[in-house]
Amino acid sequence: MTQTHYVPSGSEVVQSLPWKWNVQGRIFIVGGLGFMFDAWDVSLNGILIPLLSEEWNLTPGQAAWIGTANLLGMALGAFVWATIADRIGRKAAFTATIAVFAIFTVAGVFATDIVVFAILRFIAGFGLGGAIPVDYALVGEFTPRRHRGRVLTAMDAWWPIGAALAGFVSAWFVTMWADWRPPLLAMVLPAILLIFVRLWIPESPMFLIRTNQHAKAREVIDGLVEATGAQPVEYRLDTMEDIPKMSTGALWDQLRRVWAFSWRTTLAVWLLFLTIMFVYYVSLQWLPTFLMDAGFEQTQAFLTTGGMSAIGLIGALLSTVLVERTGRRPLLAVSAVTGSILLVILAMFLHVPPAVLPLVLAYGLIIQMAIPVMYAYASEVYPTDLRSSGFGWASAVSRISAGIGPLLFVTHMVPAMTLPGAFAFAAGLVVVAVVAMFFLAPETTGKDLQD
């Protein structure tokens, strides 16, 4: 009896390679640095709101546009750049996102009123908004299957680093110069250097296979096999049909394809991003203001918020250790709900100074266990031709929620419900999203990325 010789696909070869820090680890670090600047930029909104409110005599509604404009730009950038990444390549989008962000962040330094500043922050956000979906797609597609959950979860460890840098560096600059411009410029110089570093990263072999660029795919795959010291094996590169092209209708076509792939999964992922990130961005951008309203000094409020972000690094590392053991969904459910409840308790004890720091740190630790798992999960549930777009549209939903949500939160929800009541309402929405996840979306732990 003749036995058929099985020939693995090129993507199977990439997913079965050993992990090497000088190969896949280099891509993890370069991708993670882009994620770090995303965190730094978003967290900086919380610093800029009180500083610019004082300099330009802004009302709370006007000041909210500092963060809202930036996050709405990120929402637009998330699905535009994600579509570009799925249609013309990860590498092009990987580099361009940071370049647009750096150029318009520098331009923001020269703004003299809230309207111009908000417009420039919108465009800078548009550039940076594509960083997370594109980075997760690229890192995930280079990472071996047995390490993928831990690596994608560890990507979020870059977020608390960036958020903490925003708080600590800004506190130092404000103490030295009492000006909002140095904190804004501080994150641009390293971002410019990152643009050139990203040019050295190869294109994703899975994208090259999906677009029938077989010669380039073999070059990348063979290079990875050699660099990791793996045993070379025969592999096949299948010819794909119906390759989507970049066009004026590509954005909406990609959205249609994301929902056509699985409306249940997409609905669950969108609900998670919508609710969890709404809670997190409200706390990140407005906690310094809430603390100052409760009697904390400006520098103390910035440092406390920085501490919340810094301890999140421990949360992200704990999540990295637990994610393969518990599964994606259970870990995400417990940490997201617990973090939201802690924020309600913090709001209740905001005028009790000894209780504030422990609660802020506990919240920062737990919420940063939830977000890494959510990001890893969202990057695994879609196939290669939808991976960036699926994540990108979910990220866009979260940015819209995070942009408009805080504006509604401070101008309508808090006056109507009080701060604890408003956070309790938001926590209830998180519970709804978690329940929907268990009913609608699959577990992805240990599964191959789909071709």
Question: Overview of this structure, please?
Answer:
- Its main location: membrane.
- This is MFS transporter.
- InterPro entries: MFS_dom (IPR020846), MFS_sugar_transport-like (IPR005828), MFS_trans_sf (IPR036259), Sugar_transporter_CS (IPR005829).
- It comes from Enteractinococcus fodinae.
- This protein is an all-alpha fold and 451 residues long.
- It has helices at residues 10-15, 24-56, 60-87, 90-108, 114-129, 131-142, 145-155, 158-177, 181-186, 188-198, 205-210, 214-228, 250-261, 263-293, 298-326, 328-348, 353-380, 387-417, 419-440.
- Helix 6 crosses helix 17 (353-380) and helix 18 packs antiparallel against helix 19 (419-440).
- The radius of gyration is 22 Å and the shape is globular.
- 54% of the residues are buried.
- The mean pLDDT is 85.
In terms of topology, how is this protein built?
Blueprint: H1 10-15, H2 24-56, H3 60-87, H4 90-108, H5 114-129, H6 131-142, H7 145-155, H8 158-177, H9 181-186, H10 188-198, H11 205-210, H12 214-228, H13 250-261, H14 263-293, H15 298-326, H16 328-348, H17 353-380, H18 387-417, H19 419-440
What does this entry show, briefly?
With 451 residues, the chain is an all-alpha fold.
